[in-house]
């Protein structure tokens, strides 16, 4: 393990033909919208760390195929409120979850660096794909809401494929759909474990989008950027691009 950032020169010059990207907290500012949804339930978002911990545990069950997406959301909400001392039945949990999601959907927005980066990548002749771990209808609705539904050559969603990141198969499925080899492909995401390290293990070039500046102990082979505005320099260091 190393703690240094990996420079753009570590990528094979001229060998990249495709870029895959995560959605939540990579292209879409999911945390801000999710916190607004939690505030709609509680009147504040002070319990955000507890919500994240509970969500992460229940997402593991969902991605392992133990529960479907709606069941996961309902059981997550019940457990969260039980920890706050309020017992909910299934109906009340589902009703609160629908209210939360409705509030979230009204606040979905792209990060400011998303569109300029995607336009540059597309104009450079690169193939583009999304690789996301989530429910299909939810993510496709989100892509449409933020104007990205037609921005990619292919969209790979864990629910549709039956496997999720960091399983190599989901990365290989995206590469096959794009008509490129893993070694010709970069994958970018906000999760070091699921996105960057998962991509490297699958033979792609993994890039961790570390917006919070948390990089420490970064595995060998993983590149780190703090903004999508830095991605063009990582792909083609010598070509001009918008800042």
TrEMBL record:
GO terms for molecular function: 5'-nucleotidase activity. Its cofactor is Mg(2+). The keyword DNA repair does not apply. InterPro entries: HAD-like_hydrolase (IPR051400), HAD-like_sf (IPR036412), HAD-SF_hydro_IA (IPR006439), HAD_sf (IPR023214). One of its GO terms (biological process) is small molecule metabolic process. Keywords: Hydrolase, Magnesium. It comes from the Bacteria. Its EC number is 3.1.3.5. It is an enzyme of class 3 (hydrolase). PANTHER family: 5-AMINO-6-(5-PHOSPHO-D-RIBITYLAMINO)URACIL PHOSPHATASE YIGB, N-ACYLNEURAMINATE-9-PHOSPHATASE. NCBIfam families: HAD-SF-IA-v1, HAD-SF-IA-v3. This is Pyrimidine 5'-nucleotidase YjjG. It comes from Actinoalloteichus hoggarensis.
């Amino acid at each position: 393990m190393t703690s240094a950032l990996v420079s753009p020169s570590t990528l094979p010059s001229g060998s990249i033909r495709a870029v895959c990207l995560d959605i939540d907290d990579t292209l879409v500012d999911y945390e801000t919208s999710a916190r607004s949804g939690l505030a709609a339930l509680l009147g504040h978002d002070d319990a955000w760390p507890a919500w994240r911990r509970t969500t992460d545990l229940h997402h593991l069950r969902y991605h392992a195929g133990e529960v479907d997406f709606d069941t996961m959301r309902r059981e997550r909400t019940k457990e969260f409120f039980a920890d706050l001392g309020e017992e909910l039945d299934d109906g009340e949990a589902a009703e609160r979850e629908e209210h939360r999601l409705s509030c979230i959907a009204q606040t979905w927005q792209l990060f400011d660096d998303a569109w300029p980066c995607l336009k540059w990548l597309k104009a450079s002749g690169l193939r583009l794909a999304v690789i996301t771990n989530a429910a299909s209808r939810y993510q496709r609705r989100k892509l449409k809401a933020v104007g990205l539904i037609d921005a990619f050559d292919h969209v790979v969603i864990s629910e549709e494929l039956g496997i999720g990141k960091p399983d190599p198969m989901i990365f290989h499925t995206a590469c096959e759909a794009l008509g490129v080899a893993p070694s010709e492909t970069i994958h970018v995401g906000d999760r070091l474990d699921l996105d960057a390290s998962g991509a490297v293990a699958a033979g792609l070039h993994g890039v961790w989008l570390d917006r919070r500046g948390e990089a420490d102990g970064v595995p060998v082979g993983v590149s780190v950027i703090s903004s999508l505005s830095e991605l063009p320099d990582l792909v083609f260091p010598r070509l001009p691009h918008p800042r």
